[in-house]
């Protein structure tokens, strides 16, 4: 597989914030390995064209390099970093935001027999595969539009649909297809994930969130673990700690207040769990974050570990 043209296009058009003139399309160029950084995955396709990256979701680790793509179907708390990058050979990649409505539209238009039957259980929300030539070709044609801005409005939506179709019918198609099925187990779990994210400071009973997701407690727990690699309580803890770290970047002198704001009643518990997650106590991390607040916000807000290819 030849990725040279993709790398040339990314080199020519990469911006510091990763955005492009094409809605939902991200490109990145990173010239040095980065330390592991917490972020949210987003629902994305992330294709590496040069270098390599590692993403951790709960106790699962995903490594992907040049010519491979990662699919993330649910917006989850992850930790990621580039493992191969340098000034002479920077890490480069392409990202495309995945929208459930676009997936659903293609599923409705597919002819009978074009798609394999959907499975009953939720697949993992994240997977890595080798990129087929047809997918890479479509990505190249999409990025070529950056050299012809007047073509973007008409042609970009067509090529993005082609890319999505390649994903739906590809090796990780089950993950993408469930994103567009209103009654899929992944969609039910995504609803619960969103509720926990919106109410992460509150205590909750797993039974109540299972009811919100329309599942029995046993089915909910099993599917939640399959999708997120975490229990619901572990997921809430990840969200709390990531939000705490973002708050400490702007409130480094109020460690106790930050812990309370994200839902911890006990400062000692907050400090203990923070240190377990990030390797240093919050007060020490706050000092480090204060020294590099601008860089930290850039790496945690976007492009996130998965959003940034």
Automatic annotation (TrEMBL):
<feature type="region of interest" description="Disordered">
    <location>
        <begin position="282"/>
        <end position="309"/>
    </location>
</feature>
<dbReference type="InterPro" id="IPR009594">
    <property type="entry name" value="Tscrpt_reg_HTH_AraC_N"/>
</dbReference>
<feature type="domain" description="HTH araC/xylS-type">
    <location>
        <begin position="190"/>
        <end position="288"/>
    </location>
</feature>
<dbReference type="Pfam" id="PF12833">
    <property type="entry name" value="HTH_18"/>
</dbReference>
<dbReference type="InterPro" id="IPR018060">
    <property type="entry name" value="HTH_AraC"/>
</dbReference>
<keyword id="KW-0238">DNA-binding</keyword>
<dbReference type="Pfam" id="PF06719">
    <property type="entry name" value="AraC_N"/>
</dbReference>
<keyword id="KW-0805">Transcription regulation</keyword>
<protein>
    <submittedName>
        <fullName>AraC family transcriptional regulator</fullName>
    </submittedName>
</protein>
<dbReference type="GO" id="GO:0043565">
    <property type="term" value="F:sequence-specific DNA binding"/>
</dbReference>
<keyword id="KW-0804">Transcription</keyword>
<dbReference type="GO" id="GO:0003700">
    <property type="term" value="F:DNA-binding transcription factor activity"/>
</dbReference>
<dbReference type="InterPro" id="IPR009057">
    <property type="entry name" value="Homeodomain-like_sf"/>
</dbReference>
<dbReference type="InterPro" id="IPR018062">
    <property type="entry name" value="HTH_AraC-typ_CS"/>
</dbReference>
